[in-house]
Design a protein that fits this description.
- The strands form 5 sheets. Strands 18, 19, 20, 21, 22, 23, 24, 27, 28 and 29 form a 10-stranded mixed sheet that branches.
- The chain has 4 domains: about 220 residues, 3-Layer(aba) Sandwich (Rossmann fold); about 140 residues, no CATH class; about 230 residues, Spore Coat Polysaccharide Biosynthesis Protein SpsA, Chain A (Alpha-Beta Complex); about 260 residues, Spore Coat Polysaccharide Biosynthesis Protein SpsA, Chain A (Alpha-Beta Complex), CATH 3.90.550.
- Helix 10 packs antiparallel against helix 11.
- About 5% of the residues have low confidence.
- The chain has 28 helices and 29 strands.
- It starts with a helix and ends in a 28-residue tail after the last helix.
- The protein is of the alpha/beta class and about 1000 residues long.
- Keywords: Coiled coil, Transferase.
- One of its GO terms (molecular function) is glycosyltransferase activity.
- This is Glycosyltransferase, GT2 family.
């Protein structure tokens, strides 16, 4: 048979080119394969002549497959049926499938493709696993790996020649002396080029041979690639005795875990590039910090001057305050005198004619009114001193009087007195959360009529409990109006000798009480599992050993189970109880809210689970103590539909507050917060969520991953005149937003101001489009026009009076909007005076809907931190709303019947109706330059339009407006501050 150089010299068909050195080397390397039934793959065939030559060189070949990215290769035709051509990028899944359709395995693979380092490394990772044992891979033209244009360089850590050098280390894997896998040494290439190396394939690399610009990699079964046993032959040993000690011994490798050159995470040359980038970033940060330091120095100087000025004012105010206090005491004395005088006059007027009495006491009625007014102001002052102290009160008074005047200060005091009355929880409990004897009788009658009521097992782990508090906890169970319960107690090896007799006495007092004593302390998760093992009920309720259940708690739970057989998890509202037994700080929760649940454990107390569900997940998990109930709920929701989670909007749990309980705040048990963070992150891993949670002040903040190249976002900004607001809006977006891929679409609704028109012409560019629309103002229609013109995968509805605060606003909002279960994402908007304008929307408030936490300080946490934690709301404002374009189009955009008001609410409710969640994202902060003191519209046409749009909302969304699932029926619809509802809007107990 002719040698390969001779075949090349005599070839007359399609053009092929090879270096002369290659022909000689290939003839030596490939001659053993000439008599075999081989499959050959060549990546990069140009004119296709090489395949004709290979068909002659391998007469017994089965398949000769060529692949080339050039579409003109589709024109190549061959008489030899063994030859096949695949047109496409060899490193695409489509081309890989096409290649493997011709042959599943190959004996010879030749990479003569683009010669770029990235393509060579990717081709090796993709096709070496398809090389047969005993096969050979040839990578050509590696001289290109020294050139920048081919992703190379003499010392480039990620060049193709460096990659094949690393394969030499893979061949010698057994001698590394460190734990890990063969792919460890290629981790940098895997990350740099986005590939994965098969450990099985790497174990089959037998040898790596270099010839000028050529690398030869041979493959063999993994057992043939180890060093094997040491063979010693001969009989005499005049120098060293080897036969007995080393004969047939395997190779041994000393431990290199202390060798710094072995234990590096990455090769030094790979780290150099990373360190170089980090150094550049640090230098940029240093320069930025220097600038900020200079700015801060200027601010400090200015603040020093302000402090001195304020100190002088404080001294003056302190003197005035002392005078005011003296005046208050004088007034109190006068009031007392008036009261005494009134009593005396009452005795006198009883003796005179009625007509005369009215005339005589008229001045006294005036005095009485003044006295009442003074008492009101006194109550407000008391609140001020209680919360701010003497000096703090003066500062607060100064701030209010400076910004709102004397009348404003008086209004604030009266408002605070009114608010205290409206939020009097003790009075609210007396009126709406206390049972009368008739109520108890009625509940017992209802329970007696139930057929096969569920048995509820109450699980209580104990460890050195306070005898008094634990006895109260047990009594709260004994006093339940619903009798079908069992109390399952597990003592976690208490060290207090008084505990065991107490538990034994309690167990002996009621057959429904079971106790198990653990021999070793295992912490709360293990103890809870021990208590759970005693449970025989269909349902399990969790109770801490120092907390209390109100007498109707289990009745409400059983009623929910009977009314909805599909329910599998139940939670209720809760409040706290101090050491004096006084109830306070009620947490009136919303219905099931997954995003709020990822921000803090809203399920918590009273938590009730279907026993079968707890059995399925294996009970409590060890290792998350402190947040074991959080972890339990997380693992349960992974197995059930969200519709199987039921909320009872009643306080069914009293959480006792003392120094060691988490009820006193997250700081009481900081390890519990860390355990909760771990539990959520592991839940994300189990459920395939690409994201993580981190601790923030009042809870957790969930962030979700974006792709390396995030989608284009089209920000739609309707405007008319008002150039200063528009300029501020656009400039803040362009200067502060750290999201890299967005366009602005400005809908000009008939601007006629020359300055505005000039500005619009100035900013227009490929990334800032201006669309003219002169129709009468219709906010919905203008946004729909922008959406139709948008190129982005994601839309942003942005008012023209928005100003960016947080640079990450768009990145975070988009990351949530891309979640498949999410509809609209709303931002936290504040007025320029740093008071909240929008932190979610509450339905039914103020007629149709109102913004939650309105006028609260921007940095305030809000009601149970809902102003500062990610949570679901039924709606968010359209002043800054992010949504996927596909969803927007699916719903038909904003409703143009609602030209001005409620179009965003209607859109959000249609998203909810379609099964999506609307999210409030407090970390996305922007200013909204809407008037914080805007009064009601008085124009008759506008009032008529508003009434018409309000009527539309009630006709379409009445059920939602009457019950907002993201809000509590125990909270008011009269204010935006989450104060109590008088009366609550909950269903009757029976």
């Amino acid at each position: 048979m002719k040698a390969l150089p001779e075949l090349y010299e005599q070839h007359k068909g399609k053009v092929s080119d090879k270096w002369s050195l290659y022909l000689k080397e290939y003839d030596e390397l490939l001659s053993p394969y000439r008599d075999r039934s081989v499959n050959l793959l060549e990546i990069g065939i140009q004119n296709g002549g090489s395949l004709e030559i290979w068909s002659q060189y391998f007469p017994k070949a089965i398949r000769l497959v060529g692949c080339d990215i050039n579409p003109n290769c589709a024109q190549l035709e061959y008489e030899d049926a063994r030859i096949a051509v695949v047109v496409g990028d060899a490193n695409s899944d489509e081309s890989e499938s096409a290649i493997l359709s011709h042959a599943k395995k190959f004996d010879i693979i030749i990479d003569d493709g683009s010669h770029t380092s990235g393509d060579i490394v990717r081709s090796f990772a993709r096709y070496f696993p398809y090389l047969k044992p005993g096969g050979i891979l040839l990578a050509e033209d590696l001289h290109c790996s020294y050139w920048q244009g081919y992703q190379g360089g003499l010392y480039n850590p990620f060049s193709s020649i460096t990659f094949f050098k690393r394969l030499g280390d893979v061949v010698n894997f057994e001698h590394w002396g460190r734990p890990g896998s063969r792919s460890t040494v290629l981790a940098g290439f895997a990350e740099h080029y986005g590939v994965t190396f098969s450990e099985e394939a790497l174990a089959a690399v037998h040898s790596v041979q270099f010839v000028n610009s050529l690398c030869v990699v041979k493959k063999a079964p993994a057992p043939e690639n180890v060093l094997g046993e040491r063979l010693i032959v001969g009989e005499t040993e005049p120098v060293l005795p080897l036969r007995e000690t080393l004969s047939a011994s395997p190779a041994s490798t000393p431990d290199q875990s202390e060798n710094p050159w072995t234990m590096l995470d990455r090769a030094p040359d790979e780290q150099f590039d990373t360190l170089k980038q980090q150094l550049a970033q640090r230098e940029a940060q240093r320069a930025d910090l220097s600038n900020r330091l200079a700015e801060e120095s200027q601010r400090v100087s200015a603040l020093d001057e302000l402090v001195q000025h304020d100190a002088q004012q404080m001294q003056s105010l302190g003197e005035q305050h002392s005078a005011d206090l003296r005046r208050i005491e004088e007034l109190k004395g006068q009031i007392l005198q008036h009261q005494q005088r009134a009593e005396e006059m009452e005795r006198i007027v009883a003796q005179v004619w009625s007509s005369t009495s009215w005339k005589a006491t008229s001045p006294l009625r005036i005095v009485g009114t003044q006295a009442k007014h003074l008492r009101t102001l006194g109550g407000g002052a008391s609140h001020l001193f209680k919360h701010y102290g003497a000096i703090g009160s003066v500062r607060k008074v100064l701030e209010v009087m400076r910004t709102e005047g004397v009348a404003g200060f008086r209004h604030r005091v009266e408002q605070q007195v009114e608010l205290q009355a409206e939020n009097d929880y003790a009075e609210w409990v007396r009126l709406y959360d206390s049972l009368k004897d008739e109520d108890r009788k009625q509940i017992r009658r209802i329970v007696a009529e139930w057929v096969d009521p569920p048995l509820i097992s109450i699980v209580v782990p104990t460890y050195n409990p306070s005898a008094a508090w634990f006895t109260e906890a047990v009594d709260s169970v004994r006093n339940q109006l619903y009798p079908n319960w069992e109390l399952c107690i597990a003592d976690d090896a208490s060290t207090d000798p008084a505990v065991r007799p107490l538990l034994e006495k309690i167990a002996a007092s009621d057959s429904r009480i079971k106790v198990v004593f653990r021999e070793q302390n295992g912490h709360i998760s293990a103890a809870s599992n021990s208590a759970l093992s005693l449970a025989t009920g269909q349902w399990v309720a969790l109770l801490d050993h120092d907390d209390l259940l109100p007498e109707h708690a289990l009745y409400c739970v059983a009623k929910a189970i009977i009314e909805d057989p599909s329910v599998r998890m139940i939670y209720s509202d809760e409040d706290k109880m101090n050491e004096k037994g006084q109830r306070y700080s009620p947490y009136f929760k919303c219905d099931w809210n997954p995003d709020l649940f990822y921000s803090h454990n809203m399920f918590s107390h009273l938590g009730v689970y279907q026993k079968q569900l707890l059995d399925e997940i294996g009970g409590f998990r060890l290792g998350v103590e402190g947040s074991q109930d959080y972890d339990l709920a997380l693992r349960c929701i992974e197995r059930i539909d969200a519709r199987a989670i039921h909320h009872i909007p009643r306080v069914l749990y009293h959480w006792r507050v003392h120094a060691e309980s988490t009820a006193s705040g997250a700081d009481a048990k900081p390890y519990a917060m860390l355990a909760g963070m771990r539990a959520i992150n592991e839940h994300f891993e189990r459920t395939g969520v690409k994201g993580k949670v981190e601790l923030v002040g009042p809870g957790y903040h969930a962030s979700y991953d974006l792709e390396p190249t995030p989608p284009l976002v089209s920000l739609i900004i309707p405007t008319r005149n008002g150039v200063e607001l528009l300029r501020q809006c656009v400039s803040s977006i362009r200067e502060k937003t750290d999201y890299p891929n967005y366009e602005l679409i400005i809908i000009d609704n008939g601007s006629d101001d020359p300055a505005t028109l000039s500005y619009l012409r100035y900013i227009e560019s490929p990334t800032v489009r201006v669309i003219r629309d002169d129709r009468p103002f219709n906010f919905s229609a203008l946004n729909n026009v922008g959406a139709a013109a948008a190129s982005g995968e994601v839309l942003g509805l942005i008012n023209n009076d928005i100003e960016v605060i947080s640079p990450s606003w768009l990145r975070e909002m988009v990351s949530h909007a891309l979640r498949p279960e999410v509809g609209a994402v709303g931002a936290k908007l504040s007025y320029p005076n740093d008071r909240i304008q929008h932190a979610g929307v509450v339905l039914g408030m103020g007629g149709v809907a109102e913004h939650a936490h309105k006028q609260l300080p921007r940095t305030a946490y809000g009601y149970f931190s809902r102003a500062s934690l990610i949570s679901g709301f039924s709606a968010v404002t359209g002043a800054c709303l992010i949504v996927r374009k596909a969803l927007y189009q699916e719903l038909g955009g904003l409703n143009e019947e609602l030209a001005v008001a409620y179009n965003d609410i209607d859109f959000c409710l249609r998203l909810k109706q379609a099964g999506y969640r609307n999210i409030f994202l407090p970390s996305a902060e922007l200013y909204h330059h809407e008037s914080a003191t805007r009064g009601p519209e008085s124009d008759p046409a506008k009032l008529e339009r508003l009434a018409r749009e309000e009527q539309y909302m009630w006709e379409r969304w009445e059920a939602w407006l009457k019950h907002d699932p993201a809000y509590s029926p125990n909270l008011t619809l009269e204010r935006q501050d989450f104060t109590l509802a008088w009366p609550p809007r909950v269903r009757a107990l029976f």
